[in-house]
Amino acid sequence: MINFKALSMKERMDNFKCKLVWLVECEQNYVEYMNNRSEYMVWIEDENFIELKSFLAHKYGLKGVSFWRKD
User: Fold this and answer.
1) 44 near 9, Cβ under 8 Å?
2) What would the pLDDT profile of 5-54 be if each residue is shown by its tens digit?
3) Please, is 8 exposed, middle or buried when counting C-beta atoms within 10 Å of its C-beta (0-12, 13-18, 19+)?
4) Could you give the count of Cα atoms lying within 13 Å of 60 in the half-sphere of its Cβ?
5) C-alpha torsion angle, residues 48, 10, 4, 50 (rounded to 10)
6) Which of 6, 7, 8, 52 has a Cα-to-Cα distance from 71 of 20 to 30 A?
7) Is pLDDT above 70 for 70?
8) What is the dihedral of CA 52, 58, 59, 60, to 10 degrees?
């Protein structure tokens, strides 16, 4: 049996004591943390990144962009 719990990014950052890091060359935030001897790197699609993604879609004539959020 597999047990899991979906956490919001805020909950995950609080639980694992991690901070947002801005990666200039990607123009995107991410967080890194360790859990059970495994290292995780999670890219954050915040409002700044979504705005950039929308700009690039318009610039290159793409039909749209996608993203998801946890309520």
Assistant:
1) yes
2) 777 778 888 888 888 898 888 888 898 988 888 998 888 888 888 898 89
3) exposed
4) 8
5) -10
6) 52
7) no
8) 110
